[in-house]
């Protein structure tokens, strides 16, 4: 699995919010979103999907979305 860190989230962000963002971007995930206050983790099926998620979802600050510096693959 390729775990992604998603930061700069609203403290009210819920797993369903992130599910919608990834679904809209057509990025599959493997398992549930682990959401904490201000950040979350999720697994992508493989490295190519993790990189696509970073590329697709790191377009800069947008309402309800993480900023470019906040979405990255963890080792």
Automatic annotation (TrEMBL):
Endoplasmic reticulum in keyword set: no
UniProt keyword list: RNA-binding
Entry annotated with the keyword RNA-binding: yes
Sequence ranges assigned to domain RRM in this UniProt record: 2-66
Gene3D superfamilies listed in its UniProt record: 3.30.70.330
GO molecular function: RNA binding
Official protein name in the record: RRM domain-containing protein
């Amino acid at each position: 699995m390729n775990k992604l860190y998603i930061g700069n989230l609203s403290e009210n962000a819920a797993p369903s919010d992130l599910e919608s963002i990834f679904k809209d971007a057509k990025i599959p995930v493997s398992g549930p979103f682990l959401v904490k206050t201000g950040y979350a983790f999720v697994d992508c099926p493989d490295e190519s999907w993790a990189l696509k998620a970073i590329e697709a979802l790191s377009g800069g600050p947008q309402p309800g979305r993480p900023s470019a510096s906040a979405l990255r693959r963890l080792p």
